[in-house]
Amino acid sequence: MTELLIEFFSEEIPARMQARAADDLKRLVTDKLAANGLTFTTAAAHSTPRRLALVVDGLPERTADVREEKKGPRVGSPEQAVAGFLKSAGLDSLDQCEQRDTGKGVFYFAVTEKKGRETAEVLAEIIPAAMAELPWPKSMRWGTGTVRWVRPLHSIIALFGGRVLDGGYDIGGTQGRVVFGNVTRGHRFLAPDAFTVESFADYKEKLRAAKVVLDREERKAKIKADAEALAKAQCLTLSPDDALLEEVAGLVEWPVVLMGGIDESFMDVPSEVLITSMRTHQKYFAALDASGKMAPRFIVVANTETLDGGKAVVAGNERVLRARLSDAKFFWDQDRKTKLEARVPALEKITFHAKLGTVAEKVTRVQLLAAEIARAIGADSDAASRAALLCKADLVTEVVGEFPEVQGIMGRYYALGQGESADVANAIADHYKPLGPSDSCPTAPVSVSVALADKIDTLVGFFAIDEKPTGSKDPYALRRAALGVIRLVLENGLRVKLSEIFAAAHGAYKVSGFAPAGNVGGDLMSFFADRLKVVLREQGVRHDLVDAVFALGGEDDLVRLLARVKALQAFVGSDEGANLAAAYKRASNIVRIEEKKDGASFDQPVDAARLAQDEEKALFAALNEASAAARPLLDAEDFTGTMAALAKLRGPVDAFFDKVTVNAEDKELRANRLRLLTQIRTTLNAVADFSKIEG
């Protein structure tokens, strides 16, 4: 078995594209290997700023011989059928075919044997084909070339078993093609000379000697470890930032971690602004002191070693950072001169959506809805209304204009600075939350009220104008908004009726002249049911149980719904519950078949006087007792107790099916027994629609 090594060496590939490109390269090449009948044991892709590499081990020297058989027409078939078969099989005459008795007659078979090819020959075709299909988000042409690549391509290593493959990649124009070779280069500054390689082990070792860490994860680990060590030496800790770590690992081939200082004059600017400015523009990491506050230090990852130990690099970065932070401080100082409330009219110039008005109009709607939600959950409605009024005002500040990532956060700072209460200020900061599954969920009642109002206003508006998510497309992040509402409700245990809140939000749109009337509430509840399945699936809850509870209709209290679903899951997971679910299906199937046969329904009350056998009498009594016991338990939302009451039906139901013939010859007796089966269905459906339960 033999090793394939590929490297595409180019100018700097954008950091955000590298990891995806490496994965795409691996997928494209391995898919093409499989399509050509080539097996392998392992495949690993690597990326640095100037190279993509792939090593595939365990390849055979040749593809396997292939024998193909194609069945043709019956011997003696019309000449036209025979001619068509020969043409499709690529044969000249029937002498090249075999005749076989298949047991259903004698047929012609075309048998062709394709000899295997040299793997090296196949690889020479696969590599340029994979290169042409690499889905770069952005690509370019250079020189006189006509073929696009992410950045100008300098060389290609293509080794199979240590031997250079015969081939190359055509760039087009007068540039011709980049011929496959065994030569690459190391670090641009520290080891720029070319060198040859013989295998992946040799390649990786020589790259390291040439100041290139090939493995992306290794670079990340080194950056993180060195940064933590630098911070620890100053009695600080590294501010965690996985996204920045991922990006910086794509900017350097030989990471050298250094620490610089931040002028104390900038430290009165909110740390979120300082950190955002550093990470966005300069790709610096922040450091925290023992109390968790930002320290006047930054950590930069250089891509080179210097004779002075990085002093000049640090000094240069400090100068650049000083200019960046001077801008941030100026914006911060200017913004504080104008109160948030005075900025609200400027929101009229920002369009929320062409069919849904401006951000100022959205604020008016959110104000009303936040106050209503606050009253429903026992929060301060005045504070919720005030926070809703101010929550978008920081969108027109200089800091947020420069750093959109800190919207909401800056609103909190400005609100506190102008004397707003902590509840109002925190609600402004939290009203976008939760932004995703890893984001924290607000718990303060005023914050929860505003966050719910903002998301529900968005959901109702876009559903009303029929801008719903379709397939994988969700341009307005409505799925995320719905998941945010679900988390806010469930994690805070809010007993609210979502349909009433949807109606209030829709009413606010209609009053302002937007959003045509429609079944927004019903559509949204169906949408929420799908989102809730996603949430509960992660908690190990079956999706069919959510469907079974939602199918009852009228359930818009997510806390109650979740309690019912979890009780149902425990019930159907027990022997009694599983047997009753099976009995439900059996009873339902019998009733459905007989109703179709008779053209009549059997939902009338059971006639107790016509119950003939002890087993049906016992089942009738048990059903009545279970219904009577379950009803108050359901009203009290004791779903576990309700399930326990239903579990007592198992014995009588089993006995009924063992001993009683439903389709008796006596028509009245048969009808009464079918009504008894219908009562099984009705009794269990009081808890959930058992027809939706799978299995």
UniProtKB/TrEMBL annotation:
Q: Which GO terms describe its cellular component?
A: cytosol
The UniProt record lists the DALR anticodon binding domain at 582-686
Reaction(s) catalyzed by this protein? Answer: tRNA(Gly) + glycine + ATP = glycyl-tRNA(Gly) + AMP + diphosphate
The record, for Pfam families, names: DALR_1 (PF05746), tRNA_synt_2f (PF02092)
Give this protein's Gene Ontology molecular function annotations. arginine-tRNA ligase activity; ATP binding; glycine-tRNA ligase activity
Keywords of the record, alphabetical order, are: Aminoacyl-tRNA synthetase, ATP-binding, Cytoplasm, Ligase, Nucleotide-binding, Protein biosynthesis
Q: Secretion signal: which residues?
A: none
Q: Which GO terms describe its biological process?
A: arginyl-tRNA aminoacylation; glycyl-tRNA aminoacylation
* SUPFAM superfamilies, per database record: HD-domain/PDEase-like
Instruction: Give the similarity note.
Output: Belongs to the class-II aminoacyl-tRNA synthetase family.
Quaternary data: Tetramer of two alpha and two beta subunits.
Any idea what this protein is called?
Glycine--tRNA ligase beta subunit
Q: Which organism is it from?
A: Azospirillum ramasamyi
Instruction: Give the gene that encodes this protein.
Output: glyS
